[in-house]
Amino acid sequence: MSATKLPPEAPRASAVDIAYEALRGMLLLYELRPAERLNEVHLAERLGLSRTPLREALNRLAAERLLVARGGQGFFVRDLDLREAMDLYELREALEATAFRLACERATPAAVNALARAWRARHRQLAREQDRAAMVAEDVRFHESLCALSANAELLRTLSEVNARTTFIRWAYATGPRPELNFDEHDALLEALTSRDAASGAAILHRHIGRRAEALATLLAPARAFPIIPRRRNP
User: What is the rounded CA–CA span in Å between residue 57 and residue 80?
Assistant: First the structure.
């Protein structure tokens, strides 16, 4: 990621915002890894900033639970917490099912068709490139775009926050053996949305997100040290 430089006359608030966006981008692009201690001097130099706006941006990210501030030690990237991850995946499913129901009621045919065209074009490109990290990022983008069709800004904001907090789990999934992203289910979701079938969409999301949570738990849980069984709803 190239360094972000500020013009000399940029106001302090702008410096904080730019530092925040740059750091959040590093987190989402997996440039900063779980449990990594952040070198504030290095980051300030890389971004062309003073330590003050950088520190404010770091505190903001800590408040969003993307970083951890440890007294006397500085800032660390949050480590993986599988129990928390399972909670977040349950929350993600609830958010997306609600958003899908609202999208069935509110999304225009033109908006649905535009999402379908964009997704299918991108899917073809991903199949050619076979870039795992890009596949995971595009999966997130698709689900957030689908949520946006609900026309509920708070749902989308909350889903974006959940996705940000599971960034490192997605990174581990992308770099682990044979990730199964179930992209065919994206097509099924689009078909259900086109037919305004909220029940079918909710069922697809339950399978899609639940299978991902199970795979992630298997991939990331230390053998026998921290067993975790993804929680299931009764059929």
Answer: 22
C-alpha radius of gyration, the chain, whole number? 19
SS3 194: helix
How many CA atoms, within 13 angstroms, populate the side-chain half-sphere of residue 235? 1
Greatest alpha-carbon pair distance for the chain in Å reads: 60
Cα 120 from Cα 186, distance rounded (Å): 9
Bridge partners, 37 (sequence order): 76
82-106: pLDDT as tens digits: 788 889 899 999 999 999 999 999 9
pLDDT computed for residue 165 by the predictor: 81
Among 108, 229, 124, 133, CA closest to 186: 124
Of the two residues 234 and 171, the one the predictor is more confident about is 171
Residue 124 confidence class, pLDDT cut points 50, 70, 90: confident
Per the DSSP assignment, residues forming a β-bridge with 70 are 74
Residue 184, SS3 per DSSP: helix
pLDDT beyond 90 at 155: yes
Query: In Å, how far from its chain's centre is CA 181?
Result: 14
Reduced to 3 states, what is the DSSP secondary structure of residue 138? helix
Q: How many CB atoms lie within 10 A of CB 39?
A: 12
- Kindly report the pTM of this predicted structure: 0.69
The pair of three-digit structure tokens given for residue 203, joined into one six-digit string: 């069922």
* Tokens matching residue 55: 């520190």
CB 154 within 8 A of CB 94: no
